[in-house]
Amino acid sequence: EVHLLESGGGLVQPGGSLRLSCAASGFSFSGYSMSWVRQAPGKGLDWVSVIDHSGTNTYYADSVKGRFTVSRDNSKNMLFLQLNSLRAEDTAVYYCAKDEVVPGTPGTWGQGTLVTVSS
Amino acid sequence: DIVMTQSPLSLPVTLGQPASISCRSSQSLVHSDGNTYLNWFQQRPGQSPRRLIYKVSNRDSGVPDRFSGSGSGTDFTLKISRVEAEDVGIYYCMQGTNWPRTFGQGTRVDIK
After folding, report:
1. Inter-residue contact B92 to B43 (CB < 8 Å)
2. Chain A residue with minimal CA distance to B59?
3. Using the beta-carbon criterion (under 8 Å), do B94 and A47 form an inter-chain contact?
């Protein structure tokens, strides 16, 4: 069974940084692209980023480009999202997801980790 | 970016009755490979999203057959043949054809 467990969320001040992690199990992690999707409190889903299976290619939403960096460690079945220069509007639950069908299309989702940007 | 527009945004339904949600994209979702990468997700209250439908009309594993997807080009529909209590939640369409991927605003389905 596919299992995705996010961690690393918390309260951070505007302009600060945070690193999110996602531990994957139950599937051949190195064979799949992985995505991050966020959801601000009471709002809809917002696609953030994708990384291909090897870690070679990445894409970002315009709203996070230059501030967020996605990476992965296939030897440890881990996905990461580095969040820099955080803004209040980045406050959200961040989900990692296993892409299925095409890259950037989440199939199976984790339970999410909450990032709160506030002074 | 491709804009995904859903309607209605709120859908009160009677148990056992059908429900239909529309999703329109600002440009065609037909990929150069010939596929149309339109997905539907369900988010029940307090839960993570779950994909129901991929490539317009293909149900994910474990999804009840009362859910069906249809459409082409820029116009798509998710139908629930007979709404059950467990179908309450928010439904999102998402395009997987162009970068960046984009979601619709969501349609809240609840019971009358």
Report:
1. yes
2. A107
3. yes
